[in-house]
Write a structure and sequence with these properties.
disordered N terminus, three-stranded antiparallel beta sheet, alpha/beta, eight-stranded parallel beta sheet
């Protein structure tokens, strides 16, 4: 708003100057034309200078200790998830919905969106088979990145899925069987078999070195990309010790950083505590959580991992019945992860998914707003102290007339005025710290 006001003021002063010259000087068409040309040239130069300044200010997000920074200023996150962007961008009839959701989010001050940069072997697949890509789908991802930049939204791009949707690790295992004749017995072989690791690494390299057809900027050079996520919610229940997944994280974090040392990297974890910190497993929502093969502190101590992630789903982890136990769990879960990010990791933590499903027994929108406000308050409590709580991302936001995307957690901002006010207020408060 400050830039806009300065711009308008300068144009107004130039207009007054031109009016003064044309009314006070002797009548001379040649003189008047030369002055008009001079003022128009000055206005053009000013516009170009402002544009260059704005481009210069769109810098990579970095990290300083337990804070994100842009241009050496703090950068706290209020953002959202929209996993569907690439698929919608691939169809002219739904492409405009990508722009619509970015505009809505930006109008409320949201600055980061997390989305899938993968779709393997399924409908509208980006990767049809190992290292075989659909250029039209890649152009759709290019469009997503370019539209995000236009609306000043940065992206966390997730590179694979633990689950079957959009062709997760199961698709890689299937390719291993079909294309390489491998004898694989578990989807978790994705993490350990060298051939499947090579499939993933080749995929990562292709995405990171992609030149955007809309912006002509290589992905690994584009400040629009906030961070790379190794995988959405990786887990390996076949190895509760966590060694198998730990080894995979070490190799893949190094692989991403070797190709792209400029961008931040995160794993994509749900945040469950594991064997390395038995005293912290009390914070897990269920006993089975510690069998997931993930280990919040140990996993995030890997070289090349820049910040921690955790998710919050009380209605799937604790009870689908809305209950008084949900809010205290959210608070203790967040405080534990923020504390560990400060004491043991020395890095920011982002709660990259959280929400409440309208399908829950006893659901109402007021309680959903309470959940959102609780998460936001915990972030602010950390922010005020310069702590590791660096932000949160709602799951999920969708535009109007996209009901097929609604998994129960979807929020249509234009139809949710109370939620929109809460989101906007959080953006404003974090903006004070960012400035």
């Amino acid at each position: 708003m400050e830039k806009f006001g300065t711009h308008v003021l300068c144009l107004f002063l130039l207009f007054l100057f031109l009016l003064f010259i044309l009314t006070k000087q002797p009548s001379s068409s040649a003189f008047s034309k030369s002055m008009v040309d001079h003022v128009q040239k000055s206005m053009t130069n000013y516009d170009e200078t402002m544009l260059e300044k704005e481009e210069d200010e769109w810098q990579m997000v970095g990290k300083k200790g337990n804070q994100f920074v842009v241009n050496n200023q703090p950068f706290y996150i209020n953002g959202f998830n929209a996993f569907w962007l690439m698929v919608f961008a691939a169809d002219d009839s739904t492409k405009e919905k990508v722009t619509e959701v970015f505009k809505q989010a930006s109008s409320l001050g949201m600055t980061v969106c997390r989305t899938w940069a993968f779709n393997n072997g399924q409908w509208r697949a980006l990767q049809k088979s190992p290292s075989v890509f659909d250029e039209d789908i890649f152009k759709a991802l290019d469009f997503v990145v370019s539209e995000a930049k236009k609306n000043k939204i940065r992206l966390i791009l997730s590179l694979a899925n633990n689950w079957d949707d959009y062709g997760g690790k199961a698709q890689y295992v299937k390719w291993g069987k079909d294309h390489a004749g491998l004898n694989l017995t578990s989807d978790d072989d994705f993490f350990s078999h060298p051939t499947l690791r090579s499939y993933y690494k080749a995929y990562v390299k292709t995405v990171l070195t992609r030149v955007n057809t809309f912006t002509n900027i290589t992905y690994k050079e584009d400040p629009t990309i906030f961070a790379w996520e190794l995988m959405n919610e990786p887990s390996c229940y076949s190895d509760p010790t966590g060694d198998k997944l730990q080894d995979w994280i070490q190799e893949m974090a190094f692989h991403v950083k070797k190709i792209d040392p400029k961008h931040l990297v995160e794993i994509g974890l749900e945040g469950f505590y594991g064997p390395s910190t038995p005293q912290r497993t009390q914070f897990n929502p269920t006993n089975i959580s510690k069998q997931a093969g993930t280990d919040f502190i140990r996993n995030h101590q890997v070289l090349g991992v820049d910040f921690a992630s955790a998710h919050i789903y009380t209605d799937t982890w604790i009870s689908t019945q809305i209950a008084d136990t949900h809010i205290p769990f959210i608070i203790s879960w967040m405080e534990a992860h923020i504390e560990d990010a400060e004491k043991y990791l020395g890095m920011p933590v982002v709660f990259t998914e959280f929400g409440l499903s309208s399908k829950d027994s006893g659901y109402n929108s007021t309680y959903r707003d309470t959940v959102i406000s609780t998460v936001y308050s915990s972030i602010l409590n950390s922010t005020k102290k310069g702590g590791s709580g660096a932000g949160s991302l709602l799951w999920q936001m969708i535009p109007e007339d996209t009901d097929a995307l609604d998994d129960g957690y979807a929020i249509v901002l234009s139809k949710s005025p109370s939620t929109s006010r809460i989101v906007s207020l959080q953006s404003y408060r974090l903006g004070l710290f960012n400035s």
